Amino acid sequence: MFAEERVAQILEWLQKNRKVTVLELSQNFAVSGATIRHDLRQMESEGLLKRVHGGAILSQKTGVKQPFQQRKQLQPQAKNLIAKVAVTMIEEGDTIIFDSGTTTLELAKQIKGNQHLTVITNDLEIAQLLEGKQKIQVILLGGAVMKDYHCTFGAFAVKMLAELSADKVFLATNCFSLEKGCSTHGIHQTETKRAMIASASEVIVLCDHSKIGKNALSQFADLDQLDTLITDQVTTDLKKALEEQGIKVIEAEK
Fold first, then answer.
1. Is residue 73 packed enough to be buried (19+ CB in 10 Å), middle (13-18) or exposed (0-12)?
2. pLDDT tens for each residue of 151-187
3. What is the CB neighbour count within 10 angstroms for residue 109?
4. Superfamily of chain region 70-251
5. pTM of the complete model
6. Contacts by 129-135 with C-beta closer than 8 Å and gap 24+?
7. Is 198 helix (H, G, I), strand (E, B) or coil?
8. Partner of 120 at 20 to 30 A CA spacing, among 56, 102, 131, 219?
9. Parallel, antiparallel, or unpaired for β 218-221 and 181-184?
10. pLDDT-based confidence at 4, cuts 50/70/90?
11. Which CATH number fits domain 3-61: 3.40.980.10, 1.10.1750.10, 3.40.50.970, 1.10.10.10?
């Protein structure tokens, strides 16, 4: 196993259990305690966790960004369930915006290509995946490329979106809460996400349970801007609170 894969699995473990010990990780990955401690030191330097005696706990910082390949490893089953629900909302002739993200990428993989669609995206991997499907026209947003995140952002992307209109936008988010709505760790992405919302008639958020009840550095959408939340797990209280604000909540069935 590569170190990057091990780091991604440690992050997923922490998201699920909130804490972990060096001994647990050493036994799970069949590597030495020294190797695990090296991983934890590196992850702490990136703000992904906080080291404590004998192990680590999940970082409470809001400014944490994880590279695309790391995020791909997190909650794969949940993302697949969410994507299977989301794809049923795409209709023949739709113009849709795909935000950059690992869950929206999973949604793109679910599209069979038997519908005539126009897809607008800032995600390089989504664009590459869909451009080979004959019935799908892909519009790739311009701008600077965010290294390690496989997406464009910035003034050029925002300007293009201002001149485009879409039926639906499928948004990715790092965090989701009643207090702050949708928020992201990367401030560079905020304006692009806001422009996507402004260009779409219907706003659909794809968010697995591990991101709910948390806030990240930069807010990009209030609750009153959202139409639908698709998730894999939601509490009764949260679902009721969101529905009272006019948001349709869909919980993907396992």
1. middle
2. 998 889 999 999 999 999 999 999 999 999 999 887 7
3. 16
4. Translation initiation factor eif-2b; domain 2 (3.40.50.10470)
5. 0.74
6. 129/105
7. helix
8. 219
9. antiparallel
10. low
11. 1.10.10.10
Q: Which two tokens stand for residue 184?
A: 């992201």
For residue 172, give both structure tokens: 């990715």
Structure token digits, residue 123: 């995600």
Q: Per this entry, what is the length of the chain?
A: 254
Task: Give the whole-angstrom CA distance, residue 23 versus residue 215.
Answer: 31
CB atoms near residue 130 (< 10 Å):
20
Which contiguous run of DSSP H or E holds residue 42?
Answer: helix 33-45
- Domain limits, the chain: 3-61, 70-251
Among residues 216, 196, 206, which one has the least CA distance to residue 66?
216
Q: Report the distance separating Cα 12 and Cα 131, nearest Å.
A: 32
The residue type at 19? K
113 vs 119: CA distance, rounded Å: 12
Task: List the structure tokens of 66.
Answer: 């994880």
CB 100 within 8 A of CB 172: yes
- The 3-state DSSP class for residue 182 equals strand
